Structure formats: C-alpha cells, structure tokens
Amino acid sequence: MAASGYISAANLNCLLGARHMSNPKLGSADARISLSFGGSDSMGVNVRPASIRAPKRNHFSPLRVVCVDYPRPELENTVNFVEAAYLSSTFRASPRPLEPLKVVIAGAGLAGLSTAKYLADAGHKPILLEARDVLGGKVAAWKDEDGDWYETGLHIFFGAYPNVQNLFGELGINDRLQWKEHSMIFAMPNKPGEFSRFDFLEVLPSPLNGIWAILRNNEMLTWPEKVKFAIGLLPAMLGGQAYVEAQDGLSVKEWMIKQGVPDRVTDEVFIAMSKALNFINPDELSMQCILIALNRFLQEKHGSKMAFLDGNPPERLCMPIVDHIQSLGGEVHLSSRIKKIELNDDGTVKSFLLSNGKVMEGDAYVFATPVDILKLLLPDNWKGIPYFQRLDKLVGVPVINVHIWFDRKLKNTYDHLLFSRSPLLSVYADMSVTCKEYYDPNRSMLELVFAPAEEWISRSDEDIIAATMSELAKLFPDEISADQSKAKILKYHVVKTPRSVYKTVPNCEPCRPIQRSPIEGFYLAGDYTKQKYLASMEGAVLSGKLCAQAIVQDCEVLAGRGQKRMAQTSVV
Question: Which residues form the Amine oxidase domain (predicted)?
Fold first, then answer.
C-alpha cells in the first residue's frame, strides 16, 4: 500500500489570510536560531504572574483557518480513561482544608503544571516557579521575529494517554486536538519517496484492528517474519504486566534475539519505534518500554490514534492550566531560578533560595524539573540516602528538534506523523499541513526530530541542517536535494536539548523514585518518577497527579509542620 506524492484525503479544507513570511538570506544571523538547554538552565528569577500572558501574533492579517480533521475518538469507556477520571475527581471531592497548604513547586513543565493544577483542585495553594521565561519545559516553544513558532520537540497526543485526555476535558479544550486518520506511516528507505502504511480499521475492536493493520502490510515484513514475531510476543500477551516489567533487564535487540525474532523485524519496525519513543536505538532501549507501548496500542482500540495540538503548546495547552491554577488562588512565576535548596537542622527543606536572593517558603516542596537538574541541586546531606543515590542511573538523553521553512509546498507528504526510518532522523511532519496555527497553503515547514543525537549535540547548526537535507533528499527525491538546487530553505531553527527525557536503558526501572521522598515535606514529579507511562507527556501529567495525591494524603502532617514553622518564626 505504498503511496507517493499524496496528501492525506479529506483532512483539510482550509482558508488562510495572507501570512507574513520573511525570506532572509540563508546563513545570516536572523535566518537561524539555535537554543541549547543544559545543566540548571531550567530554573530562574521571579516576576509577577502577569508577565506570562501570551504574546500577540505578529502577522499582517489574522489567522483564519477552517480545518476538517477526524472526529475525536470515543475514549471515555476505556478502563484507563475511567481510572484517570476517577483520580482527577478525588481532588475535587477531597475535604476542603481549614488552612490551604502552601506548596512551592520548581518547574513549570507538564509535571509541575499538573501537580499545581490538582493541588489547586484540592483546595491548596501551589506556588509554581519556572526558570525560563516560557511555560512548558519539554513542550516549550518560542516565536521568532516573523511570528513563526518553533518548538522543543514534535509532540503527539495518543488515544492511549488517559490522563492527558482527561486534562484536556477538564480544561474544556478538547477541540484543540486535531485527530488524524488511524494509521502509522513509514518511509521506505529502499524505495525513496514511497511510504508504507499500517491502517487500523475503525469497525474492528482491539486487538483485532491492530492485528489487521499488521497482517495487511506486506511491504515491511514478510509472512514468515510476522509469524515469528507473533510467536515471540506470545509470552508478553499471556504473561501480562508481570512479564512486561520483568523485561526491563533486556534491550530491544537482546529480547528479539532471545525470542527468535528475525533481525529484519528490528530493522524494519523497531529502530523507528525505539527512536520515536526514547530517541535511542534498539541496542540501548529497554524492551519494557516497547512492550508497554505495544500493550497500550493493541489493548485499546484508539490507543495508537494520534492527534496534533492545533497551535503552540505554551499558549494552547499550558496557558489554560495556568489560568485554572490562578483562578483557584495559585500562583505561577516565570524567570524564577532555584539557586539552592536550604535545609533545616533536621535535614528537611527550609526554603528554596532563588538566584535573585528571594527566599520561597512553604508547607511542602516539589521538584518537577528534569532529573539531571535535581541532581545538580541536591543537598550534600541527602546524597547518601539510597532513594537519591539511585537517581545516578537516570540520565537525560540528548535530542535535537529541527524546523525548516521551504520556498514551496512539498507534495510528497501526509497530514500525519511520519516515521522517517532514516539513520539520523526519527519522526517528522509537515506542520504547515497538520497544525491549524502553522498552516500555510504556499510553503511547507517540516519539523523533524534528529535522533539519536549524542554525536551531534555539539555540532554546529550548519552541520545539522546539511545532514538533515541529505536525509530529506531521500524522502523527497523529486522535490529536495542536498545542495538546494530544488526546494530552497527560507530559514531554519535548531533547538538542542542536551538532557531531555530520561534514557530508558535496561535495569533503570528500579531506580525510578516514587513521588513521596524520604524527606518529610519534599516530593518529586516528572516522567522519570515511578508511573506506568515512562518518559512521555502522559507520564509527566500522571506523575504530577500522583505527586499531588501524596501531598493531599500527607495534609495533616504537613499542616503540623507549617504550624511549627510559624510558631518558631513568632518566637524569633
């Protein structure tokens, strides 16, 4: 079912007002922007919440887009969605505290925003601090001088993300997800410019729709390979979650060899899947990660169905969460860098010291930053505690996100996420087609995930763009050439994240911490903490809910600590 030169049918019927697009000379300073975030650059300086209001658009005319996407799938009747909805309801239904806890949270990515949102729902007062001047953490985005957005990563919202889907519903923004046809589309390296599809029939329940999609695709796997792969998967199907968790000690490649699965199955399918899930290759990725994804995709009818956000994440997703938090009395401060975690004599947290000298005190404290930043700021007194020692195994993986604006509309693409199957690239999408806010009828903007990025993170933007163009020439042989003799680059942005999601290598599962630390009053949130969705947006949101749940459960103890602190302050 290979397709070439085809834009996915009936997904878009769009009209757009004239859109400003600059055409700077490639190579000039304003034609490229590179960002690099590492170390403690995710913590920052306090400003008033008003400073986080969304910036105005910088276009000659207002954006007017009417898109016809696929209907939102029926997710509400799945077990995982119901469980997620129930957990959300417990915060709204919890007894109102006589005195709300003041909870200071470091990091306004999805984990920190989720923690703050659900604490506010439970009647407490979160004080959310973000180092940078933009919301979102790993879903942050920036607007350039032409009014075009560029993002930290290419973010896909799956049907198998029950807590994320509940969050959208609770905020009343379900309509901001643009659902695509239920397919997975892979480029064919041996047939440049062609694609192979796995199409999930809507009329079939799970797992039959997934089995049908695999059986119908004869271009990537032969029948003997499908049979051997199915036999290899039988233990996972029969053993359930216990079996899945037990595979954490094996890499994807090791597991495939152990189960007698042909190497071509890994080459054809799981290199692309591994890079999409964790930005690394199958010889490094824990098989547990793959099995969790397969389990969700095969056990839930709409689990593998994908949606794009209809615009930039800070405004379209993060700001509604901030508005909700502030409406319930919480606070959100940008540019609020944590310099030091100050301790009491008993080793508990006394305060967060900001880089501008301001001191933030609370009844409880949460670190919702990437694990690498937590390790940088971990107090010496805590480093010998096993709970924190185990964090040494958890290390963020480097990733590069590339945006290229071309001088023409590319034809050989889809209104969907595409698996490049390139040795240098992971997934990509023509955002001028898939996203309402980024829609452009005349020019394409490709957003691409450059992974694995370990050997490239320190390379120049020019090197990265040159390598990307060489790979794109294989995906668009009739439209793109490495020397730009065909489609011309108008501009590009390269966003480097030296430490992104934690690297899901074998045997790191036991090192993932629960949200309640052994330090009374100190909690963790983040996709690296213990929850069943690993390193993902869903994992980040769920970790925030679990963190908020732990704090609500500890409310009486934390309130007592607060009263003791107030009494000591009064005596002084």
Answer: 110-551
Among 252, 285, 304, the domain boundary falls at: 304
Instruction: Tell whether 362 and 298 lie within a shared domain.
Output: no
3-class SS of residue 526: coil
Identify the three-state secondary structure at position 468. Answer: helix
- What is the per-residue pLDDT for 41? 36
Helix-then-strand count for the chain, H and E: 17, 21
Q: Which of 304, 320, 354 is the last residue of a domain?
A: 304
Give me 191's structure tokens.
Answer: 């047939």
Residue ranges making up the domain that contains 299: 201-304
Residues 300 and 207 placed together within one structural domain of the fold = yes
Instruction: Collect all residues with Cβ–Cβ distance below 8 Å to 546 and sequence separation of at least 6.
Output: 515, 525, 529, 530, 531
Query: How far is C-alpha 73 from the geometric centre of its chain's CA atoms?
Result: 21
Beta strands in 174-328 (DSSP E): 177-179, 183-187, 195-199, 306-309
Give the count of domains, the chain: 2
The token pair at 69 is 């996407």
CATH of the domain at 224: 1.10.3110
DSSP state of 176: G
353 and 391 part of one domain? yes
197's CB contacts (< 8 A; 6+ apart) are 1, 3, 183, 184, 185, 186, 217
Contacts of 142 (CB under 8 A, 6+ apart): 35, 134, 149, 150
In this structure, the answer to whether residues 387 and 518 fall within a common structural domain is: yes
- Kindly state whether residues 217 and 265 are assigned to the same domain: yes
Integer CA distances (angstroms), 404 to 193, 464, 550, in order: 19, 12, 43
pLDDT digits (tens, 9 = 90+) for 169-191: 999 999 999 999 999 999 999 99
Query: pLDDT tens, 189-247?
Result: 999 999 999 999 999 999 899 989 999 999 999 999 999 998 988 888 788 888 998 99
CA angle, 200 as apex, 196 and 201 as ends, to 5°? 130
121: tokens are: 């729902």
End-to-end CA distance of the chain: 76
Q: Encode burial over 339-371: b for 16+ CB neighbours within 10 A, e otherwise.
A: bebebeeeeebbbbbbbeeeebbbbbbbbbbbb
Residue 52 has pLDDT above 70, yes or no: no
ω into 452 cis (within 30 of 0): yes
Fill in the DSSP letter of residue 3: B
In this structure, are 207 and 288 located in the same domain? yes
